[in-house]
Amino acid sequence: QVAQRLLVRADETRFASVDEFVADSALRVGTQTGTTNYETAVSLLPEDRITAFEQFPFAVAALINGDVDAVLMDETAGQGYVGTSAEQLKLVGEPLSSDELG
Prior knowledge:
34% helix, alpha/beta, 4 helices, single chain, 5-stranded mixed β-sheet
């Protein structure tokens, strides 16, 4: 089962878990359309807090630019982004797996 995590800016201090993210109605998440990550986002948040992108690099760029507050993605992919941009990005919270939801 693929684990999903929140990718955030390295200086993020407003939340440290998915629950804290969900609880703050001001926060917006980015993710890729047509993926289990998008389905997970919809199960956690109202659609007006979700920004869908055609590809994850666009979502990550929006995160770095401050257009979204986190990106929900597969943990392995998230670790790859952190590996190449550790000064800008980090993963927060416990991994979610899609079988734990719904």
